[in-house]
Every structure is written in structure tokens, then in C-alpha cells.
Amino acid sequence: MAHDHHHACCCHERHEEHQHGCCHEHHHEHHHEEHEEHEGRGQLWTIIATVVLLIGAVAVEKTAALPTWQLLPVYLIPYLLIGAGTLKEAAEGLAHGEAFNEHFLMSVATIGALCIGFFPGAETEFPEAVFVMLFFQVGEFFEGYAEGRSRKSIEHLMDIRPDVAHLEEAGGLRDVHPQDVPVGKVIAVKPGEKVPLDGTVESGRSSLNTMALTGESVPLEVREGDDIISGCINLNGLIRVRTAKSFGESTVTKIIRLVEEAGEHKSQSEAFITRFARIYTPIVVGLALAIAVGMPLVEALMETGLGGEVMTAAWAAFPEWIYRALMFLVVSCPCALVISVPLTFFGGLGGASRKGILVKGANFLDILSKTDTVVFDKTGTLTEGRFAVVAVHPEMCSEFQLLHLAAHVEHSTTHPIGAALRDAFPDEATDGCQVSDVEELPGKGIRATVQGKTVCVGNTKMMDAVGARWHQCEHGDEGTVIHVAIDGSYAGHIVISDQAKPDSAEAVRQLKALGVGKTVMLTGDREEVAARVAEELQIDEYHAELLPAEKVERMAALAPGAQALAFVGDGINDAPVLARADVGIAMGGLGSDAAIEAADVVLMDDRPSKIATAIRIARRTISIARQNIAFAIGVATMWLAVFADVGVTVLAVLNAMRALKA
Fold first, then answer.
1. Distance from the Cα of residue 370 to its chain's centroid
2. Structural domains in the chain (count)
3. Which structural domain, as residue segments, surrounds residue 407?
4. Model pTM?
5. Catalytic residue at 377?
6. 177: in domain
7. Which of the residues 102, 117, 407, 488 has the least number of beta carbons within 10 Å of its own beta carbon?
8. pLDDT tens, 589-603?
9. For 284-319, b where at least 16 C-beta lie within 10 A, e where not — what string?
10. Which of 198, 377, 606, 645 is the catalytic position?
11. Same domain, 507 and 598
12. Using one digit for the tens of pLDDT, what is the confidence trace for 59-96?
């Protein structure tokens, strides 16, 4: 696809500058992805190198009786190797007035550990300084690895953006870029091609596959005078279209723009550590300052009273209390928190992946756990996305014969309706019946001779044309009705429909059991079809006959009433809504690349019931993360220094590993 796009860019010299921009953007995105992968590998090698250097530094300390000032550089090498990024982040935070973050806490605590050894009678804490920074970076590495590339570019959407338009001119057709076609000109769209621009059919008849844009599973029959939109696929006949909009204003371009803009409105959940650090860090730093400055004065007052020797006594006690304040900072540095919380999320992500649920980042687990409104697309999400025969109503023959004849007439068509009829009668290819004179009548159906009989399969217009006295089907609202006539006499009708997935109803039931307060279905399909599916699956609310932009509008209207809103979809037309939701969930098995790229969660086996599983895993992960926060805050205090720094970390990491069990 990228090659095709590049080729399209470079084919049109008149728009060389525009295409150069496209190519440059694609190259930039590719370079950015490579940079991220390289950065991850570099971080891992830095961690490994730091461990090796730290072991070497400890060996030097044990074997060589070096003074403190000579030992410091030995430990500074691994410390700066692993901690340079954190120190830089802390400095930038200070420069921007955002000092109280986890980077600042790690920096102050570890610098304090490096300084402690220089106080009279104090032991060096150099290994601890490197360990704390190393543990922090291990946690950051796990979190970065789990989140991966938070959101890749939506370049797969280019699959629905046509690269060429056949412009009618005096000398015939000329292939140009759709951007070069003025409004009001006539273009030709051949069978199998994408409609490049919005417009009106000047001549010709055809069926258009609109599923990528509207989610509607039934092909749209178009004829002279009908309006059509770009991005549809022309299934059979050649049509001539008079353009009504420029390429920049066409439907397909707007969809791509919607995705790009929706991403900017994405609500992001802050990481637990960052939120915690904003409260915890100023408290710890404030207490450390109080210990360093206030306690010498208190001690001096207790020793000398209010006499003139207070400041002298306070100054004498100052080094000891500075040492204690730094020790307080080191001990209060919540190693258990900075290791176990990312590990908990990493475990939750791993547990979800083993269930066939790909969550693109730890922050989306946070949002999933709060989800109280779930909005579904219909076609391909709650339903199978392909037709099947649901009822056969014969008039002058048996059900078997009616299906038999219809399948033979439709044996060579690529239309989804024909495929459904053939699937319902799979023996038609081997039963030896003679089929001849197959003729497709655009907008009506297909006529053929089967075993010497003229059989017409199509809609009511086809029946009227051959004089067959058809009648309405009482189950017509369940799907599409296909009428059959034999030698001009009405033989009956067949109802085909897009069926709900086997576990769609169970998915809705499980969501309600989890406390999800509202389920909504948005679809481009017909009102009566949407009503039937919503009733069958017990969905609270539905909206039908929506275009992609209207789906985004509906989502915007639902969002204010929801704590966290999830949207579940599978098609290219769902990409803008997936990007706009608090958390977008895509069907990965059959879903489009664009939907999968725009989503935050991907269900690899297309089963809607996995949504409830994902929410359960998210809630369990958040619960474990909160337990670890309680461990880190409640136990890691300076009165339980050694146990807290080592024991709580071990306990919290063991607790975090529970998240792996989905």
C-alpha cells in the first residue's frame, strides 16, 4: 500500500509539490517508528550495561579500600548511564514549573543517597543510589514495552482513497489524480474500481459496495440521476459520474480528516505513578526540608532554651539532621511503587493478550475499568457481516426446489446475495442441471434458463417486468426479500439477512451484569433492520441510517453523560468514531486495518463477549495496582527502613504478577 501511495504521488508532475509532501510525511512516519524501536532496544542494553557496571563497582568497593571521594566516580558511571534521562526529565520539569513528578522524586532521593556517605561517621549509600535509579528505569522499560507505539499513523485509510480518476475529454478518457478533477466534470468509473469523487450518475447502472463507508451490508443499486459518494466500490456496470465536490471536500477525504482530528480530542488517562507523584513528592520533599531545617532548631531549643546559643547549637546539629533528611528521602522513595505499578499494568496487558485481547497501552486499562457506556457498530461487530438465508416461502414448489432454482440462477454472480443463495444450496454445482442464457438486469435481478424453464430471481421490479403476481412477506422486516418467478408465474420468495453473532446477546448481558449502565447501537443500516437487531440483543438504544460524520456527532452527544465511553466497531467507516471514543475497541479478525489502527483495544477473534472480559481484566489490574500503592505508601516509611525498601518491593512485585492471570 505504501508503495502504491508513493507511486500515486510520483505519477502526477503537476502536483509534484503536494505529492512530495505526502511522500515526505510517509517517510517521516516510517522513520519515527524505526526510531521508537531503536530507542527500546537501546534502553534494554543500557539496563544490562548498568547491571554489569554496578556488579563491578560493588566488587571494587569490597576489594579496594578506596576513600569515599575516589569511590564516588566508580558508582557515578553506572548511575549516570542509567539515570541521565531521569535527571534530564527532572531538570526540564523544574524549568517548566512542574517539579513534583516521579522523575524529580527519583533524582532527589538518589542524589541524596550519593551525598550521605560524605557526612562524618556515615556509611556510603552509593549502591542504593544506582539500585533505585535502575529499578525505576526497569519499571519505565516495562511500561514502554507494554504500551509500544501508542498510535501509529492512519495511513491504511489510504486504501479507500482512490489514486486515479478517468476524466472524460474530447479525445476520450484521460487518467488523472482525483485532485485534478474540477467540479462539474464527468468521470467514468469502471467495474471493480473505487468511486474517486462525490457526484451524480449521468448514465449507466451498477451496484456499489458501500460497507466501508456506511456499514450497510446490502450493495446500493444506482442508476441515472442517483447521487453517489467517494470511497464506494463499483461492483459491476460502467457508470459515468458528474462530479459535485472537489477532492478535498469529498466524503473519503473527510473521513480521513475526521480520524486525524478525532485523535486530537482523545481523552488520555494519566498514569497512576504520575498522579500519585504529584501529591506524594511535595509531601516527602516538604517533610525532608522540615527535618533538615526545623529539627536542628527544635533540638537546639530543647538543649539551650531561648538563650543566645540556639543558633550555634542548631548549626552544630545541622549536619546530623541533613543526613537524617537525606536518609528519609532515600527510604521514602517508593521503589515498590515505581516497580510494581508498571509491572501490574504489564501483567494485565499480558493476561489480556492471552485471552485474545490486545490493549495498546496501560492507560487504556485504566479507562476500560471505568467504562459505563458501550456503543456498538452493527454490521461485522454485533452481526456476522455476511448474508444467510433465514426463511424460504414457496408458492408453487417445495422449499428445496425454490432454493435449488435460485442458487443455479445466481451461480456466477459476485453479489453477496448470490453467495448467500449458493451457500444455502451447496450441491447446485454438482447436480447436473443445465443453466443457460444468464442475463443480469441492473436494478432488478438475474434471469436464466434452468432445465428449459425461464427463472427470474430478483426484486419486485423484476416480478412486475415478467408479470408475476408477487406479494409482501410477513417477515420482510427481518432482511432482504428475494422473489422468484418460473416462466412468468410467481414461485415464492426467500428472505436473507445478516445474522447476529452467536455471542452478541451474551456480550450485552455480561456488560449489564458488570454494571455498564447503557448500551447503544449506531449503524448505517435501515431503520427496520436496526430495530430488529436492537430488540433481539436487548440493546438499550439505537440510531440507524447514519453516515460516518453522523456517528461522530451521536458519539459527541453521548459522551457528556458517561464516565468513560467505549465504542466497538470493525470497518473503515468506524475509524473516526473509534478514535473519538474514550476507548475504541476494534474487531481484529475481520476488521479493517484502519479500524484496528484507530482503536485502543483489539479483539483478535471478533467475539463481542470479549469486551466484558477486557473490562473484568482492567478492573482486576487496577485493583491490584491500588493494593500496591497502599503497600508502598503505608509500609515504606523511615521507621521500617530496610524491610520497607526491600520487603515491600518484593511483596508488591509478587502481587503485580497476579495481574498476569487473566
1. 17
2. 3
3. 385-499
4. 0.57
5. yes
6. yes
7. 488
8. 555 566 667 778 878
9. bbebbeebbeebbbebbeeeeeeeeebeebbeebbe
10. 377
11. yes
12. 998 898 888 889 999 999 999 999 999 899 889 988 88
